[in-house]
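User: Hey, my collaborator sent me this sequence without any context and asked if I could get a structure. I don't really work with proteins. Can you help?
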Amino acid sequence: MAQTDPILAETERLHGFFQSLGAESVEPSLLQPADLLLDLYGEDIRARAYLTPDPLRGDLMLRPDYTVPVVQNHMQAGATAASYTYAGKVFRKQETEIDRANEYIQVGYEIFGAQDSAQADADVFSAMWQALDGLPLRVQTGDMSVLMVAVGGLRTTDERKAALLRHIWRPQRFRFLLERYAGISPQPESRRQLLAIKDPLAHSEHNIGLRSAVEIGDRITRLHRDSQAAPISKTELDLLTGITQLRETYPNILAQLQDFAVDLPAISVAIVRLEKRLEEIEKRGIDTGELMFEASYGRTSMEYYDGFVFGFYDNTGKDFSLIATGGRYDALTRCLGNGSHLPAVGGVVRPDLLVKTRGQV
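Assistant: No problem. I've predicted the 3D structure and written it out in structure-token form, which is a compact way to encode the shape of the chain:
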């Protein structure tokens, strides 16, 4: 009798477990529209994506993950409360590390439309915790909304807040903008040149690429308006810097956030959400006292997440492989919903890495 492939056996176990929680099994198309995925993930994924032209459908991409097509299919079918699970291959090119898989199985669990976000966050996190079967893993959590509401509470212009939020997943660019708005960093030379133009319509030689003089004029108007705005205060700069650097267990994190809220009261709403989530996680039998929270967790690798985020890492070897990851992505449903949106949260597991970790214990 042939021995069962342990990865396939683990895939079936995980898939069955999520189905036992009431999730409907779905299988989106292997080929996905490339333009949509490039818009959502950014051009950075192009180097790692398997792209192919189609004479009728345009550029297509072998699915790099399941979440986006599952969200798109659900929103197109009529946005209602639902939960899904899936199990199949995803594809990513590996340009530098030959030993890293360029195709692997992903098993996931997604919840749409739950009105109590704290309960839904805890349900997905607890499901992942149970699915990983008590292995000695390092667990990391975060919450993108803490930094987002902190930016929203700054005493500065809406345009500056929008720019900071747009680059919140790019820490270096975010920091550069923050310091520029605080008057610490000098204006870039290109920006100074545009500000020096008094009448853009009379300077057609300043057209850049496909931008017309009128478009550049609009840009210059915004730059002049920004240059007249008061700088972000040192107090608020220090508060945002402190928030981005938060990394502690939850009891200490809550105490530090309460201190920050004295001078930045906007984050109080994020603190309340965090406390409710912790209560719900505790109800599911998970001790949060030693659970790690990092305010910047997910900023470089989880771009469509906008709330609670988490990752489970192999703690038995030297590579600290990311075995399971997930979080809340309410904004993604709005982006793909054609005018409608739903609260949504989910997570995915790598069965191959789970099998590897189990073999090392």
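In plain terms: The first strand starts at residue 24 and ends at 25. You can pass these tokens on to your collaborator as they are.
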